[in-house]
Structures
1.
Amino acid sequence: MKRPGGDRGQVSIEFLGMTPLIVLTLVLMWQAVLVGYTFTQAGNAADEAARAGTAAPRGGARQAACAEAGLKHLSAAWKGDASVSCNPSGYVTADVSLKVPVLFPGLVSFPVTVHGHAGAVEEVKD
């Protein structure tokens, strides 16, 4: 015996059951995007820091210019936990460490650190 209305509403119930899985998938994809963007930020900041370190005069000014350039090129949400260190010898190297944010950059970070490293040859001034 067939009931009047049959399977009406079944699609709505199935979609309601799948909604948490869909939301979880979107959240995990967004988190993967943030991890990738953090790697991009760290690499770019290290490149800019090394480049600025080669153009600055030797000594403490070079270290300061290197660190300042590395922080300058970071998005505001990544600056809080960022650390930039430079080795101002003949071949200037810069290392940048950033924390990976959890869902919303600038609020909470994972205890995972992403590192960016770059180097550049010192410019010779005539």
2.
Amino acid sequence: MSEPTAEPATDAPEPFAPDSFLVVPARSFEDLRVGEVFRAPSRTLTDAHAAAFQTVSADNHPVHYDAEWARRHGHFAPVVHGLQVLAFTAPGATLFPHFIGEVFISFLELSCSFLKEVHSGDTLYPALTVTALDPDGDKGVVTTAATVHNQRGELVLSGRHKYLLRRG
């Protein structure tokens, strides 16, 4: 029988540390580059998505749920809520917040234009593209172009987001 040794096994696994359980390696403001694209997974909208958003938003305009009303007013089908389409550009729908998680301070502003109608059955392809990096002391502002295309390659939403990050 051999005596136990006080030396740890060389093939022992590293202890688990929840703080280092990252989806992607963390980056700083200085690591971001103009032109980088952060895509969200494509999503085909259904009537259930529209109904759920209608419930949450309390927007009960008939253009969003009444097919006959929509047709009488020039739409071929009920129109998905514009704010629902905008929600697909949320940074958390992409990997962007995973890259900047430790340096993120706040979501400063957003703007957008709704360019084409979206209907149940459309597939949306959202993306955020870094368009400007403006350092300001120990902070920096990241500006992104927010875009959503449909399955026909049409740009249905175009906008801008700004985020405040810690530098250094």
3.
Amino acid sequence: MKTTRIISLAAAGFLAVTGAALAHEMDTDQDGLYTLTEMQTEYAELTQSDYDALDTNADGAIDADELEAAIASGALPAME
């Protein structure tokens, strides 16, 4: 049982690191924020309305915390 838990945690950590790397690649101007255009490279179907809903602090951009929250909540699928 303990081995299964360790493997599960390792797999989750790997997926988190992989997702972070993909998110970093999506941030083409490397400013730490994701514009609608940048996000549409990974999420082609994302609309302005969807983007605005993900921008929970209403600053006009998606930051890493908002992206992580959107994926964790299922609002966006995990990046592949």
4.
Amino acid sequence: MPCLYITTNVNLAGVDTAAIFAATTTAVSTIIGKPENFVMVLLKGSVAISFGGSGEPAAFAEVVSMGGINSAVKKKLIHSIGSILNEKLSVPPARFFLKVHDTTAGRPVSSKL
């Protein structure tokens, strides 16, 4: 189950968060290749964030997935989620940071006892 956790310093009062949830769920599902009904998205606003010493709109996000992550997927996630946050929350792509973690990385594909 992929999980996308987004934290931003933007106040979400009056923001159409349903549109953010829909767009990010579809993006994560499509890019990672997992069904939408397995994608979880958490969104937290009004968090004190300083990026480059500035309190202008910024966001930090983390994607955790069991498989489906490689360097091409990471690049697509950064671009897609960054574009969504720019469009929906006016967070410039240069003020967005994405951490990606594959929980299966480093594990053997199969093991036999």
